[in-house]
Each structure stands twice: as structure tokens, then as C-alpha cells.
Amino acid sequence: MDKQNGNEQMSKFAVIGAGTIGGILARKLAAQGHSVKIANSKDPSTLMDFDAKGVTPAWAAEALVDADVAILSLPQSAVGSLSENVLYALSRVPIVVETGNYYPDRDGRIEEIENGLTDSEWVSAQIGRSVFKAFNNIGAMSLLSRSEAAGAEGRIALSVAGPAGPEKQQMMILVDQLGFDPVDGGELKDSWRQQPGSPAYCADLTATELSNRIRQATAVDIPKFHSIRDKTEAVAGSEKQRRFIANGLLR
After folding, report:
1. What is the pTM of this model?
2. Which of 7, 87, 133, 207 could be 181's S-S partner, Cβ–Cβ 3.0 to 4.6 Å?
3. Partners of 98 in beta bridges
4. What is each CA distance from 88 to 10, 91, 188, 211, in whole angstroms?
């Protein structure tokens, strides 16, 4: 990490997962001047035409070397198949954030989640280290096009759930830098409040609105949230929107 004015600044990012959300985050991070490496489950040559200056395709384990932050933007079903090399590399990255959401129709039924673990607690257990939950409760088109300068009226807020401390504060600063108001989503065990089906999910809320919805969500509503989740499309954004993003027509 670089040090500026006595504070550690995140500068090197590894984005594991080159789908819609991962791709948008990689572009936005590179536009902020960060060093970004991106990987998918295939040879890096499959990403050589990635349409963002400053984003370097790499194998996942190589992308993670010396990274300050790793962003896992993967379906839950892919997390369990990460290689030992990738898991070892992840263990050495200071901050890991995961953007994924569990959808049984796509990922298969995961009993631990069905029995009460949050999506990200399950991911944390699978990879053997702590993570932060962020960038999961915003639609792809909003992440792509609705960022605003700090203080802008109606600026969208995004919540960050995970362990309290300086690393979480760095994540909150990153959310702000990318154009959204950061909201503390509590500990990782509280991240069900920003998962699919919850009132905080993909609603494009201000910081006050998002904070209220997170606070007002109660555990008794979890079965209802899961029912809504199971009726929600697993991939954010329409197929037309995804094609536009893939072809660089929307950035």
C-alpha cells in the first residue's frame, strides 16, 4: 500500500471474476488510477480484449500477488472450486471483499446458508479467512452509471458489512471514491440485511434511506426475504445491458 499523509492507501487490486459486476469495478478502479489485475476461470488470453486502459489480465493466483485488495465477484457455486494456489494467494492479501449473492436455482442448495449462515459467512468459511461484503446490493447499470461526487443530491449509498476496524474504514473510503455514499452494514453476520430479497437490495437508496432499511430489517422477515430472493433473476441487468457493457458501449 502507498502511504499518503500518514494513511495507508489501497492501490493494487485483484478482481477475481470478469462478469458484469467484476468488470465494472475493474474499469472504475482503473479510472481512479489504481493498478488492477483481472482474472476469470480461463486463460488470461480470453481477457486480452478487455476494454479498459490500466486493467491487466492474469491468472487468478498471479493477480493476487502483492495485491492490497482482492475482489471476489463470483457465483457462490464457483467459490468452492477455487484452487489451492488461489486460496493460498488469497490468504496473503490484506483485504478481501466479496460481491456475490446466493441463488439456489443457480448455485445449488447450500445447506449452511439455508440453515442460517449469511452468504458471505459461508464464503469466508470456504476460503478460510475474513471478508467484507460490498457491491452486492446494487444493480449493474446503477453501479456503472449512477456514481456521483460526494455531496451530490440523491447520491446512492452502498453498505459495507464486515469486521470493524481500520480495514473496514478503508473499504468505506473506497466506496466513496467510486462515487457512492458508504453505509456501515454491521458485522458479517448482519449482511443478510443487504442480501437479495431484503429491502436494501438493488433499491438505489440514499445513505439515510439505506441506513433505515438496514436497521429496520428483522430476523423474523428472513423467510420472506428468501422467498423474494428465489423469484429474483440471478444476474443483475438485462441481456441487452450486458452486451452493451461487454462491447464497451456503456462504461
Report:
1. 0.89
2. 207
3. 72, 133
4. 21, 5, 22, 35
